[in-house]
Each structure stands twice: as structure tokens, then as C-alpha cells.
Amino acid sequence: MKEQRLGIIDIGSNSIRLAVYERTANGAHRVIDGSKRPARLSGSIDDQGRLRPEKIDELIDIMNHYRLICAHHRTGYIRAVATAAIRNAANRDEIVERVQEEAGLTIEVLSGEEEARFGFLGMINTLDVREGFLIDIGGGSTEISLFRDRTLVQSVSFPIGCVNMSHFLAKDGTLSDEALSELEDKVEQTVRKEAWLSWTPGLPLIGVGGTVRALSKLDQADTKYAFPLTHNYMITESRTNELFEQLRPIPTDKRNKLPGLSKDRADVIVSGLAILRCLYRKLQATHYLVCGAGLRDGLFYDTRFQNQPRLDDVLGYSVRNLSWLHPEAPQQHVMQVNRLAMQLFEYLSPKMELPERAHRWMDTASSLFRIGASIDYYHYAKHSFYLIVNSHLNGLSHREMVLVAAIASFKGKSRLRQQIAEYRDLLEESDLDYITLLGTILQLAAALDRTETQSIGRLSITTAQGMLKLEALTSGSPLDVERAEVEEVSKDFNKAWHLTPVLAIPNF
Question: What keyword terms does UniProt attach to this protein (predicted)?
């Protein structure tokens, strides 16, 4: 099967974004190109509610530019959607018609409910969460959705966004006490019309879009956070309030120099955060969780997987996709090591107090331990660590991504300490022991298929007199290499588990 490419264009109220997705020959998906242009469409509406002609010209130029990028990549299909600024414009039909005629692209103008649904789809397919509120603060609107048991329950779209509120209330990007009070009153009055928003307190507030991403980047820069990823980043209410009050009096020309804050977000971040905080209080949420995926991702899943766009297993899909992106790893060998590692884990885990999610760490690490071979076979463990840490393994926390990377590349405790040194602030005191315990299981499982022939059909595991006895039913192939490799890893294994593994072939 040939590669297939899909372009997604999101004409937002604040910016216009392109993402080009590729489906590789073996079924993996990845983004191969992307672009973002600030547009501020919602700030360019005249007194008659019409988008100004010069902004329509700018929009058409951007759309033509994106169409050429897609053509360069031989993109088979382009899906372009527009949100609040065009949806609410009095001349929206004219805009859609001109883009069709002058850029050759058809625009879907999404309703507020459709926008919320696609945003939810992008979030639920990339985070391992079961319930909460989802919020997307755009330039000209804000969408709020309630979901339970990973299913969308109810959504609403309000015509309040960071750009239009900044336009009306924020002078030079700052908010006076009077302006803040006016903004909060407006949000309160609007939200009051939707009584259901106050019926389910005590849930996390999950944010997608530029406002919450900017918040997380500011916090990470300020705290020198060790992990370079905003997706699945948690922020407390008190920390958000602290950053908001720091930003509020700073004029835009000074604010855009703050570490972590992009220049095209500097003049609207305060209004966006004011809306976010007000809604957080109204919903009586527990904490903020940042989602790096959103509308474009939801549109991708909806377009590519039309029959079943919502994933049942976020982490499982992510692991398979990452494996398929690195097909140099011998799949039969990896599957065998994974099978043996999970069998060893199930037998050994009752002997130690391991966290409930250790099962997922073991399964993930033993599925990805060889992906580094796509860079260099001789140093594949080091490269596997890098790829796992720097890939989007959806369904794991930042701490868990480091744990899985360290388990997958485990080669002894001294090397482990060097490897995780820059991430120590993320890890708990006991994590070094967890990595060692699971890393030695993976080492042993890999040793049991060192010839990569999958000779062991069934493995019987028992313990006696300090030994972990491994009786292997084979396909007839000798296990001399595997026996030697088991002996090679036995010292590290014994230190971790206080058992010496011994490979034997039963006599019949």
C-alpha cells in the first residue's frame, strides 16, 4: 500500500493552522509538515459584523500558500474548516465563496457544537481520562463540554474569546481591575444560561487551544520543568492565579519577552486566562490539565477513521503507531520478548510491591525496546530511550514516559542514574527500584530470544533454593545461545530479585 497524505486546515479566530498527516506504507500515522499564521480574524470585524475586505484577502493568500504546501507533499485530500470568526460574520457566505473561487478550497463552517465535538475527539484519543470538563478558549468563542466514561454528554459554545474580549476590554493587553470585573461579569451572565455547567463539581478542567498551552509553557519556563512537553501537563488553581496576577499589569511590549510566551499570544493571554479562571470557579473543578491535541487532531481521526473515530485504547494505539514508525525492529522478535516479559512479570510481580500501573509500563517498554535500532543497532538502547521520551506516547504521564524509556533501555544501575539525571525532578524516590526490577525482567526476556528465532514455544516458571527455574518447550532448535545470555544477565537479575535465573529444557 502506498503512503497516503491528508491536509487539515483550521481557520481559527486567532490563527490559521495547517497540519499534513501521512499514513505510511505499513499503516502508521505521523505529521510530516505544519504551519501557523496569526490572523486575528475576530478582531477585524466592522460595525456591521462583516469581516473586513483586507482580512479576506489575507485569508485567501494564506489558503493559497497552504494549498501549495499540500501540493508539494502530493496530499490526496485537504479538509478546511472555519470556526467562530467566520461562523459569526455577516458576510460568511461571501468569504466561503471567495476562498472557493480564488484558492480552490471548500471551507466547512463548523457550528459551535461541531467544533466542541471535534475538539473532544482530539482530546479523548490522546489522554487517558474518563471524565471531566473540556474547554477550548478560541479567539472568538469558547466551547465547554462535559464527558463521562469517555463519552461526550453535553456541549455548549459561547461567543466569548480571548481576541474579542481583549479588543473590547484589554488596553495594551492589560486588564484593569474594572475591566477584569466587567469581563468576569460577562462570562458569569453568559454561563448562567446553561444550568448544567454547575451540576457536576469536582472534575478536572482539561484545556485545549492556545490559551492553556501558553499557560503551561509559562509555568514550565518559570519552574525550569525538565520535560519538554505541554500535553498532559497538570497545573493547580493557585499556580494559575499566581501567573495571571504576574502577567496582568505587564504591557504587551514587555510581556512578549517573557520566557515561554510566544509573541503572537502576548496581547491576548491575559484575557484568555481571565476567561479560564472564571469558568474554573463556575465549574468547581479540581485542577487544570493541558491537552496538546485538539480540533485538528479530532478532524484527522474523523476523516481517517470514519467508521470508528474514537479510540478504545489510547496507549495501545500510540504504542502500535510508534512501533510501526520504526519498522527496522524485527516484529516477531519484539512480540516474543513482549510475551515472555509479561509472563515473567505476572509470575514475579506478587513477590514485590509494585504499583498497579506497572503492568502497563512493562507491556509498553517490552513493545518498544528495539525501536532505537532504526537509528543505530549497536547503540539501540540509548536511542530507544531518546525516541520514547521524545515521542507522543499518549496515555502516559510525563513521569511514566521517563519510566518506560528507562525500563526499555535498562543496562545496569550505574548507567541508569546517568540516563535519568536530567529528569530526576519528575521521578519519585522509589522509581529507581521500579525501573531496575522491570528493566531486569526485560533483559531476561530478551536473552530468552537472543537468536531471534522464537524457539521457545512455552515457558514454565518455578522458584526453588534461590533459583528462578525456566523450563522451555522448544521447536527443536538448540538454546545454547539463550542459555549463555541468561547466564550473562543473571547477576543484575539476582541483585534486583534475589533469584538466579536458570534456563533448562525438560526431559521427556
Answer: Hydrolase
The Cα–Cα gap between 71 and 11 comes to: 19
CATH of the domain at 28: 3.30.420.40
Q: Which amino acid is at 291?
A: C
Q: 16 near 9, Cβ under 8 Å?
A: yes
Residues 281 and 351 occupy one common structural domain? no
Here the cell at position 80 is: 478546511
**What is the Cα–Cα distance from 110 to 118, expressed in whole angstroms?**
10
**Distance from C-alpha of 362 to C-alpha of 342, rounded to nearest angstrom:** 7
- 102 and 117 part of one domain: no
Please indicate, yes or no, if residue 226 is contained in any of the structural domains.
Answer: yes
Asked whether the beta carbons of 187 and 275 are under 8 A apart, the reply is yes
In the numeric block, the cell 498532559 is attached to: 232
pLDDT digits (tens, 9 = 90+) for 343-398: 999 999 999 999 999 999 999 999 999 999 999 988 999 999 999 999 989 999 99
Looking at the fold, whether 23 and 61 belong to one and the same domain comes out as yes
Phi and psi at 292, nearest 5°, equal: -80, -15
Same domain (yes/no): 124, 58 = no
Residue 306 resides in a domain: no
Same domain, 357 and 470: yes
Domain of 220, CATH number, reads 3.30.420.150
Task: Indicate whether 494 and 363 sit together in one domain.
Answer: yes
421, three cell numbers = 539525571
Condensed to tens digits (0 to 9), the pLDDT of residues 472-504 reads: 988 777 799 999 999 999 999 999 999 999 998
Partnered with residue 233 across adjacent β-strands are: 290
DSSP string, 132-151: EEEEEE-SS-EEEEEEETTE
User: What backbone phi and psi angles, to 5 degrees, belong to 207?
Assistant: -110, 135
The Cβ of residue 466 has, within 10 Å, a number of other Cβ atoms equal to 9
Residue 395 within a domain = yes
Q: What is the mean pLDDT of residues 227-232?
A: 92
Q: Are 82 and 11 in contact (CB under 8 A)?
A: yes
Contacts of 456 (CB under 8 A, 6+ apart): 336, 340, 448, 449, 472, 473, 474, 479, 482
Q: Which whole-number Å values give the CA distances from 140 to 257, 290, 414, 464, in the listed order?
A: 25, 20, 53, 69
Which structural domain range is residue 332 located in? 314-504
